Automatic annotation (TrEMBL):
Gene3D superfamilies: Glycogen Phosphorylase B (3.40.50.2000)
Cited PANTHER family: SULFOQUINOVOSYL TRANSFERASE SQD2 (PTHR45947:SF3)
Alphabetical list of NCBIfam families matching this protein: stp3
Matches recorded under SUPFAM superfamilies: UDP-Glycosyltransferase/glycogen phosphorylase
Transferase in keyword set: yes
CDD domains xref list: GT4_WbuB-like
Organism of derivation: Pelagerythrobacter aerophilus
Alphabetized InterPro entries for the sequence: Glyco_trans_4-like_N (IPR028098), Glycosyltransferase_grp1 (IPR050194), PEP-CTERM/XrtA_GlycosylTrfase (IPR024004)
Superkingdom assignment: Bacteria
Stored Pfam families: Glyco_trans_1_4, Glyco_trans_4_4
KW S-adenosyl-L-methionine (keyword) present: no
Name assigned to this protein: Glycosyltransferase, exosortase A system-associated
Keywords, sorted A to Z: Transferase
Positions of the Glycosyltransferase subfamily 4-like N-terminal domain: 17-189
């Protein structure tokens, strides 16, 4: 049985799009007959034992801490993480190292892979220099920005095979000069076995939140600036003028929480805007049941143009209507008028107009939900997507004359 060690920034029991994608990959690979474990780096900010089982999955935890000025601190972090990976490799003896971005994970895994002659697969979920800009923790064009990109380029060049989660990321790597054949696609996906028929509207929760009978626009996730939720709040007065009784439900929290609440308080539509704060993952389905249209008004940026999000796919898998801004990451997932609707990014009026048009035409909702669910099942089901990895693993592990490694794709 092939053993695959996944090298990760963080994992369950923490909840994030990163950890949920990791869970789906590992569970699907186990179901396909692989033996898998994860090892997390120094940034896994959760208390727990050095060897931890979460949701039936096994994770090794790197220990220790590093300090020093920026740049030197990251090199020390890579070295310390490599020591932890090395220990797991010696004890568990994996056949493949599969590292996931950021590049710190890839660089640490590359050190160990070269030392032991183990194939290295590197998977890019986002360019972390662009993610830092989107999160407000970095600046495009800064020294840190270019150093982060240089480190990632080094890992990509040294890996035996590379995966990206979408075409936007792959195309960018090709422009940088990397061979297209070395880069596979493993798109964001969902475990369809987790999604049955949508649960009925939770009337008890609706009363607790003070929701009326009108249509509910909703967002469930983290409140980062690049998500564009301010545009959604700004669209509400315009939407109410077109569809009286419309409401907005914002579930989650994050860096923009206070700013959004302040904006909502000054809005003419403030009585129709509800904030729930963060909610436990095991009850989030109750909140989904209240929402007629899931809205994703991401701002136009390099990050949102190149990276496909997970949340719209989860909504489509649950047969929820989806409306999203027309950034590149959304266009890869949603076909306008077929599996959802798109509107101009950074434009509250365009957002309101598209939502109003959708809400005024409920006759087409059921067919749109059916098409969206079918699209996810055909293109984004992890039970199918996992085969993309296996094909690459098998190629990298194929015996070669004189013990040579097979060439990267």
């Amino acid at each position: 049985m092939t053993r695959v060690l996944h090298v990760l920034d963080h994992s369950l029991p923490l909840h994030s799009g990163y950890t949920f994608r990791t869970r789906a990959i590992l569970k699907s690979q186990e179901a396909a007959g692989l033996e898998v474990r994860g090892v997390t780096g120094l940034r896994h900010a959760a208390d727990g034992p050095p060897l931890e089982t979460v949701d039936g999955l096994t994770f090794h935890r790197a220990s220790g801490s590093v300090s020093g000025p920026a740049g030197l601190r990251e090199w020390r972090e890579i070295a310390r993480f490599a020591e932890s990976i090395e220990q797991v490799v010696r004890e568990w003896r994996p056949d493949v190292l599969h590292a996931h971005s950021p590049a710190l994970c890839g660089a640490a895994a590359m050190k160990v892979a070269r030392r032991h002659g183990i194939p290295l697969v590197y998977e890019i979920r986002a360019f972390w220099e662009d993610a830092a800009v989107g999160n407000g923790t970095g600046r495009e064009g800064s020294l840190k920005y270019w150093l982060t990109r240089a480190l990632e380029n080094r890992v990509i060049a040294g890996a035996d095979a590379v995966f990206t989660i979408c075409w936007g990321l792959k195309d960018d790597l090709v422009v940088r000069g990397f061979a297209p054949g070395k880069i596979g696609l493993s798109p964001n996906g969902v475990d369809l076995s987790l999604f049955g028929e949508p649960v009925p509207r939770d009337e008890v929760l609706a009363r607790e939140l003070g929701l009326g009978s009108g249509p509910v626009i909703g967002f469930i996730g983290s409140f980062y600036d690049y998500e564009g939720l301010g545009d959604l709040v700004a669209a509400m007065p315009l939407l109410q003028a077109e569809v009286p009784g419309s409401q907005l439900l914002l579930v989650g929290g994050g860096p923009m929480d206070d700013a959004l609440r302040g904006q909502a308080q000054t809005s003419p539509a403030r009585e129709a805007i509800r904030f729930t704060g963060r909610v436990p993952h095991d009850v989030v389905e109750r909140y989904y049941s209240l929402i007629d249209v899931l809205a994703y008004p991401r701002k136009q940026s390099r990050l949102t143009d190149l990276v496909t999000p997970l949340k719209p796919l989860e909504a489509m898998a649950q047969r929820r209507l989806v409306a999203a801004s027309d950034v590149g990451g959304h266009r890869e997932l949603i076909e306008h008028g077929e599996t959802g609707v798109l509107f101009a990014a950074d434009d509250p009026a365009a957002c309101a107009a598209r939502l109003a048009s959708l809400l005024r035409n409920p006759g087409g909702w059921e067919a749109m939900r059916d098409r969206a669910r079918a699209h996810v099942a055909e293109h984004h089901d992890w039970a199918r997507n996992v085969r993309r990895y296996q094909d690459v693993y098998h190629r990298l592990l194929a015996p070669m004359p004189n013990g040579a490694m097979p060439a990267a794709a």
